[in-house]
Sequence to fold (303 residues):
Amino acid sequence: MTPLGGQLLSRTRAEPAAAYPANPSPFIRLLAILARLMPGDYLRTFVYLNLIEAPRRLLRQGLTTFYRMDHIYAVLREFSGYYHGKFSILEFGTSDGYSFTKMLFATRYLKLEDRVVVHGFDSFEGMPPAADGRDRNIVDGVDWVEGEYRGRYADLVAYCDRHYRNHRIHRGYFEDSLTPEVLESLQEHRPILVWIDCDYYSSARTVMERLLPYLPNGCVIYFDEADALNFGSRFTGEMRLIHEINHGLLGDDVELIPDLKLSLDSKRVYRFVRFNSELRFDPVERDCAAHFVHHRTNDSPLP
Fold:
């Protein structure tokens, strides 16, 4: 019985397992056909990496990769088209003015210089030393260097004075340059975009704490380094601040909501919402007749 049992066991092990059901996508089927047409795994791998994977990756990146200038125009168009009044853009971490002057030009291009004031805040002394462990790079240990990103304050002021009239440049640390006068001006020019490019958790937190009473519901908050430091870990940098705000740091009624239309493949753009706040934008009146009933047409998936 043992030899027979051994033969039966050997046959059972030799039999191939039943194939599980599979329904590969048309793309996988096409790849399988190509693989059968080419000799050798080296050639198959070369063709896949260079003629299939690389073009697909480049196409995805070209279509969905976030470019931080895109949302400036989108925000300006949105608020100028849907709301009355005057607005402001506030950039924290102006440095040499690379983004600042592009924001100013955007208001000119869209003919909004009379409605939008662009504020720039920076010490113009470069990065200060890290004051908080939450500002550190815990992945490769390469941190910002003291004095990095030093701006040319006098040159920037002179350039903007020659070319634009709707700018305000505030020199100093944020806790000093966000004066009562500056904050009070936001009552008239309500912020539509707060651009936080100050890199450090501690600096970004100072900005959000000071601006809290002046931010209208729906205001866009952009965090330039949110998903750059430590892969966007919630333990460090601006992403930690976002996490803490959404867990009650500034009050249980405050939330930062990701705006996926503006941020695309990044985690940088949010909408500010404070449930108990009456501070909001004044909408342009629209014809109520436009809200008509969507009448029944047919029963197919087509409109």
Notes: The mean pLDDT is 88. The radius of gyration is 28 Å.
